[in-house]
Amino acid sequence: MAELQDPLLGKKLGPYRIEGKLGQGGMASVYKGSHTRLQRDVAIKVISSQIADQADFQARFELEARVIAKLDHPNIVSVYDFGEEQHITYLAMQYIGGGTLRDRLHGQNLSYQQAITYTLQMARALHHAHQHGIVHRDVKPQNMLVDANNADHLLLSDFGIAKLFDTPTDTSHWNPQVPRQTPAAPELTSIDQIVGTAEYMAPEQALRQTVDARTDVYALGVVLFLMLTGRPPFRANTAVGIILQHIQTPPPAVQQLNPLVPSALAQITARALAKDPAARFQSAEEMAQALEMTQSALSSSSLAPVPQVDKPVFLPPGSAQSQPSARNSIAPFYAHPFVSDKQAGPTTLTAPPVAAVPGLRRIPTKQRSRPWQSLIPLVILIALGVASWQLFPLLHLSFSLPGGSNQTITSANFTENFQDNRRNWSMTNNGLEAQISNHTYEITVDDDQSHFPYPQDQNDLPPIFTLSSQLTLNHGNTAALYGISFNLNIDDQNHLTSYYAFVLGGDGKTYGLLKYNTDTQQSEAISTGSSTAIHNATKNTLKVSANHGHFQFFINDQLIAINGQTTTTDTSYSGGKVGLFFAGKDANFSVGTTQLSILSK
């Protein structure tokens, strides 16, 4: 009956005859039509008059439509034409006919193989648009169309359309006394609020910060999460409730909801969903390449779920042959780290004693940062019955991402480029000299101790975080060690009580995971090994991703196995600080970009 009542059915818009209604949203309706002369099926998007009648919309519409029409990609729905007829603004597009990805999912997950196939196609489509200066802004299953002739072929629609619906007004002058219309469904955002769909909205888009390609990467990560688990990462009864979670709540682990998802694919999903854009894939193409590597590894062997994982070689004390290291037979560190057999035999790992750690103190409980306190005013307002969509513009005043002027939510996050020493990195210590210049933190070790430079202005680590650093051994022998350290805990007497460290050896081949043993007051090796991922005599990027005592380690973006496993579990230590690790008499090191991303408090 609804179609019979639609006044456009059977009418003509330019050369197109409208034959049936395909769907309707808050901003536009979509019809199936045909070109009367070419006899070609088309999809016609008719813009809501509420939007089309806005000042300057027609000019913006024509400009944006011309740009979108130039996109030519096998996974992008083509735009054939646009125009205005009888005060009706429309777009004529390629008709696909196979329904949407949302229709196909209908609350169920896909196989991980199918999820990879679809996500890879969407990533390549997005990258093509990004190269033309177009950010989609509304990536979601509803805008992903399944080819009627090939169910494995997915096409992305509505490129740049969301930008057309964004109001040009300055939201900083929003008047909280003027009520705004609340969306009828929580997955839809109001046209005069933030353009996009709440379930797929990146934090920076929700906060009205600058959007770029990484904003679409985040939304695609949400779609991937949905395909793998059958549900979005965040759910709530209101759009503002969903958006708040996008801003401050870490997403559930994919493998907790679907244990059949390979670890590599779960890692790709988690990285795409990073709150900080700098912690995500920096382009859709980078995400596509990671998906391709994973797809290739999974198709080549069911026993190789992660691409290019290095298998370590172990040498327990007194052993002359390579064998797996048992957890209770870990070799302690002494004075000469990373002794490598010149006959290409197994690798051993030892470390020098721990030097005093200057200036690092515990933060008294009453002084510790509690980011949730900033949410108290919001909770009170909600409790008083203030409409959620009236509250939403206020969030711009309370929440921000790293690099903004307000660090309420992510105060522990940082990206250190060493322009100066505003974070108060350790500069002097007995046996260690340091300086910061030319965007580099340079370290020289003068003794046989292990040293832990760190930024002193930081709170205790939460259980979920990612730490990475670019490190170079400028000169030093094979006894040198350098890397990243985390869960550094110091007692009230300024004595080191715990740490983990992921380090490289001076031979340019070996790596190790170290742990401080509080019983013996010595460092020990959880694992050692060699890896072709290590760059000899040049920069190496080390990274650790932690999730409640489960760790994954990367060298130059390559996942490294620890004791034969791509995920290492050790819950001995928590909290503490992050820092670096250096050892090796007369060795000199350089530190480049160092980043800490906090995903949970």
TrEMBL record:
Annotated binding of ATP, by residue: K45
GO molecular function: ATP binding; protein serine/threonine kinase activity
Domain Protein kinase per the UniProt entry, residue ranges: 16-298
SUPFAM superfamilies reported for this sequence: Protein kinase-like (PK-like)
The UniProt record lists the keyword Ribosomal protein: no
Family annotation (InterPro entries): Kinase-like_dom_sf, Prot_kinase_dom, Protein_kinase_ATP_BS, Ser/Thr_kinase_AS
Cross-referenced CDD domains: STKc_PknB_like
Enzyme Commission number(s): 2.7.11.1
UniProt entry keywords in alphabetical sequence: ATP-binding, Kinase, Nucleotide-binding, Serine/threonine-protein kinase, Transferase
Protein name as catalogued: non-specific serine/threonine protein kinase
Top-level taxonomy: Bacteria, Bacillati, Chloroflexota, Ktedonobacteria, Ktedonobacterales
